[in-house]
Amino acid sequence: MPSMTTQRRGPALNADERTMLEGWLEYHRQTLAWKCEGLTDAQLRTAAVEPSELSLMGLVRHMAQVERSWFRRVLAGDDPGPVYTSEGRNGEFHLTEADTWQEAYDTWQAEIETARRYAAGFGLDDLSKGQSRFTDEPFSLRWIYTHMIEEYARHNGHADLIRERLDGARGT
Question: Fewer beta carbons below 10 Å: N end or C end of the chain?
Answer without folding.
Answer: C
